[in-house]
């Protein structure tokens, strides 16, 4: 039954045009780059002209009403969720959704080209992404920030990260001064941000003039059952939303690169916990020009215990689906002959 539910492949029609668009580059998941691609703009933000662009006739990301209720786990549920998941995170999540090949591919647009760079790894968790960063930057110049002490405890145990600064903190309220870092990296954190725009605004603030942010996160599924579990569990943004958030925060030269496990063979209908790498350059010193209201979630406020328990349990059940999907895709990759769609 599972094979029937998960069968089918995405059909994507491409056409070329000249004009405005939201630009990104992509990968076929085997290391080869797609041509520059753009989505038709869904925001009034001005973007630069490109000479020749390729546009999906239908968006790769499924549509989602802006009014749709968010039943996802937020910071409080995530804190306790990772209290237990931290025990097996590197052995369960990484092999299916965040491999070393994916990590290195996703970090490539960040241009980590100087060992003396100051880098902040926001939502760094167990330090898996940080291990990729310290290949290019001295560990003493890297700060790992996460709200989960249980995840950070795992990072502290990793020898290559011994010289990193490790602190607890909030991605939407970073404890760094304005114009501080040469690079901002965040992988697998945006899923739990109640207000993604605020987190990306903070990324802009802490970077120096001309510095670059690299945010790595999930993509919204097109398959109906994966969409259901995605909305129950955590935030899976559309590709267009990532670009819009970056542009509204003030970033320039915003690019999106698709990533994924090799055995997915480019299939994106189920969404990926790590599905794209988005980069942007800070064009001016100081804070972001974007003005925002109060935070969406106040972690100090009391939460209805029933609602908390319900979201925690539903999120844990939904997470199981996204553990099974890569196993299913890996099995299909082993069975289906190479060159045929899976």
From TrEMBL:
UniProt-listed PROSITE patterns: SAM_MPBQ_MSBQ_MT
GO molecular function: 2-methyl-6-phytyl-1,4-benzoquinone methyltransferase activity
Transmembrane as UniProt keyword: yes
Keyword Oxidoreductase included in the entry's annotation: no
Span list, region SAM motif I: 119-128
GO biological process: methylation
Sorted UniProt keywords: Membrane, Methyltransferase, S-adenosyl-L-methionine, Transferase, Transmembrane, Transmembrane helix
Chain intervals for the UniProt region annotation (SAM motif II): 164-177
Segments passing through the bilayer: 308-331
Superkingdom of this protein's organism: Eukaryota
Region spans: SAM motif III: 205-218
Domain (MPBQ/MBSQ family SAM-binding methyltransferase profile) ranges: 70-279
InterPro entries (UniProt xref): Methyltransf_11, MPBQ/MSBQ_MT, SAM-dependent_MTases_sf, SAM_MPBQ_MSBQ_MT
Entry's family note: Belongs to the class I-like SAM-binding methyltransferase superfamily. MPBQ/MBSQ MT family.
Protein name according to UniProt: MPBQ/MBSQ family SAM-binding methyltransferase profile domain-containing protein
Organism encoding this protein: Glycine max (Soybean)
Organism classification: Eukaryota, Viridiplantae, Streptophyta, Embryophyta, Tracheophyta
């Amino acid at each position: 039954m599972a094979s029937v539910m998960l069968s089918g492949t995405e059909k994507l029609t491409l056409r070329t045009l000249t004009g405005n668009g939201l630009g990104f580059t992509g990968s076929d998941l085997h290391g080869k780059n797609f041509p520059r691609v753009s989505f038709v703009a869904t925001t009034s933000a001005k973007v630069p002209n490109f000479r020749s662009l390729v546009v999906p006739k239908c968006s790769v990301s499924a549509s989602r009403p802006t009014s749709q209720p968010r039943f996802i786990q937020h910071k409080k549920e995530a804190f306790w969720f990772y209290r237990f998941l931290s025990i097996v995170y590197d052995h369960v999540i990484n092999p299916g959704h965040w491999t070393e090949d994916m990590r290195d591919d996703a970090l490539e647009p960040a241009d980590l080209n100087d060992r003396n760079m100051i880098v902040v790894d926001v939502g760094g968790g167990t330090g898996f992404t940080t291990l990729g960063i310290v290949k290019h930057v001295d560990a003493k110049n890297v700060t790992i920030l996460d709200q989960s002490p249980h995840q950070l405890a795992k990072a502290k145990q990793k020898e290559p990260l011994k010289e990193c600064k490790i602190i607890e903190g909030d991605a939407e309220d970073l404890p760094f001064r304005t114009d501080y870092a040469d690079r901002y990296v965040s992988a697998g954190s945006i899923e739990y941000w109640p207000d993604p725009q605020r987190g990306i605004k903070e990324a802009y603030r802490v970077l120096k003039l001309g510095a670059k942010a690299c945010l790595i996160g999930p993509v919204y599924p097109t398959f109906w059952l994966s969409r259901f579990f995605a909305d129950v569990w955590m935030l899976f943004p559309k590709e267009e939303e990532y670009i819009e958030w970056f542009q509204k925060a003030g970033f320039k030269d915003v690019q999106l690169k698709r990533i994924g496990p090799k055995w997915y063979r480019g299939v994106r209908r189920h969404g990926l916990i790590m599905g794209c790498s988005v980069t942007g350059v800070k064009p001016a010193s100081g804070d972001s020009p974007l003005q925002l209201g109060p935070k969406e979630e106040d972690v100090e406020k009391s939460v209805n215990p029933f609602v908390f328990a319900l979201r925690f349990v539903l999120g844990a059940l939904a997470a199981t689906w996204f553990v099974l999907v890569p196993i299913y895709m890996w099995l299909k990759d082993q069975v289906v002959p190479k060159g045929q769609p899976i």
